Automatic annotation (TrEMBL):
Classification via PROSITE patterns: FTHFS_1, FTHFS_2
Catalytic activity: (6S)-5,6,7,8-tetrahydrofolate + formate + ATP = (6R)-10-formyltetrahydrofolate + ADP + phosphate
Membrane spanning residue stretches: none
EC number: 6.3.4.3
Pfam families per UniProt: FTHFS
Binding site for ATP: 61-68
Assigned keywords, A-Z: ATP-binding, Ligase, Nucleotide-binding, One-carbon metabolism
Gene Ontology BP, a term: tetrahydrofolate interconversion
Annotated organism of origin: Secundilactobacillus paracollinoides
Family membership noted in the UniProt record: Belongs to the formate--tetrahydrofolate ligase family.
Protein name according to UniProt: Formate--tetrahydrofolate ligase
Gene3D superfamilies per record: Domain 2, N(10)-formyltetrahydrofolate synthetase (3.30.1510.10), Formyltetrahydrofolate synthetase, domain 3 (3.10.410.10), P-loop containing nucleotide triphosphate hydrolases (3.40.50.300)
Amino acid sequence: MNDIEISQAATEAPITEIAGKLDLSADQIEQYGAVKAKIKLPVTGDASTSKLILVTSINPTPAGEGKSTVTVGLGDALQRQGKKVAIALREPSLGPVMGIKGGATGGGYAQVIPMEDINLHFTGDMGALTEAHDTLSALIDNHIQQGNELNIDPRQVIWKRVIDINDRALRQTVIGLGGRTSGIPRQDGFDITVASELMAILCLSKDLADLKARINKIVIGYTYDKDPVTVADLKVGGAIALLLKDAIKPNLVQTIEHTPAIIHGGPFANIAHGCNSVIATKSALALANYVVTESGFGADLGGEKFMDIKTPVLGKTPDAVVIVATVRALKYNGGVDKNNLQEENLAALATGSENLKRHVTSMSRYGVPVIVAVNRFTSDTDAEIDQLLAYVKDELHVQAFDTTVWANGGGGALDLADAVVAAADEPSTFKPLYDSDDDLVTKMTKIVQNIYGGRDVELEPKAKRQLKTFQKQGWDKLPVCMAKTQYSLSDNAKALGAPTEFTIHVREFVPKLGAGFIVAMTGNVLTMPGLPKHPAALDMDIDADGKITGLF
Ligand code: ADP
């Protein structure tokens, strides 16, 4: 059976029952039908002894390596062991659902359900974010049209529009055509919703008041005199915040094994900060004793951003890090063509394992226990699995487990769960990667050298010019959010495995003052993806009775 068939065959428990597992009563949730709910805010509870487990991975290959699958399976395994557990995931974006990568609900018998709903609109958060974002766009253009009291330079509006679909044709647009009554013409463009600063703000806000305060700090562009213009200047922070009044509440669903799963916020980790919301993680920590969460793509992207951007806001560092690896992905990183990944290839596995080593080293430097989970595919041979487990234990000196959650649900990760519980009990020795006082270039250099394994950072002319503006504005000591290809440790998507001695090229920066960081655009990474030649949408259908097929 494929993912959707397994999901459709599962029986859901009423959402009130799932809420009950977290000691939430029916009036502490807002039900969206029988099996979905939003959790009312604020969530209270004692989080002082709760353990936070972060799941991350090696560099992904085009197929996705099963990070969400292992996150869900590990949560289920902890529940099977009688722990009070909550899984905290990100919400899927329609871009990859319709495009290439698939959903974000796990797979096989380690899934959150109902997967169709979660992958398609869910409780409407993505729609609310898109509309809130584009409301701000409309208000900016209306301000310029109606006399432009703030003296906004239409050539320097940096607040683009968004849509939650991969639509390459919208990357560069011209708006305001059609004469006097149709706006002031200017060049604009679209990002995917998950790259919106509003998404980052939703995910980093502590509460509604913080959300509004952060929205007011957004820099939408510059005046003709090159001064920044903020949402507060436009006096529309309240209107934008109110459009997010429901989106700010975390969503509650369940796994196939009825483990509570809180799914909230969905920034990508290559072009945004890649972590689910602080509100959801905090709520999960207050409601459960063990929280299993994931960050996007590899440890170089989501892992680093979880440690350096999310944890300072969350006020809690992970108690253990699980790095997911697959034999297939390591062979791909070792040079095997994606069509030949089914065949045993111990030599390529050994070469590609250097990629895993880099991620184990980089996550270990934060001082948090690291454990490797090998997500087993049916095509993996025993010889391959044995070689990989031995390599991790003998060469990298960390624990490694063969996990089969895709086939067996929580039963496929019981050893991993035991090890995670033991590791999380060790006293925390967390060490941040950079000082908050370091300037932007120092922060980026530390990331490149310690996390990516590269040599240095080079700024292209535009980025150099921007740095001067940032110094003048006092923005040059903010945390940095690297926008980089997910496929390589470097900024060249084709440099697989464990490249060394490379330079990361920063094209330009995007100041995100509401989110509280500066995005550094490296290589040729794009904030609006395109669809592939055969988008996943071509295989999807719904029949007259509403039965969905082809959704992975
Ligand atoms: P990631 O979070 O790394 O992007 P997912 O957990 O979303 O990856 O999994 C991507 C796809 O791979 C899903 O369709 C899932 O069903 C499939 N998958 C994951 N693990 C396995 C496995 N062990 N065997 C077969 N398919 C798997």
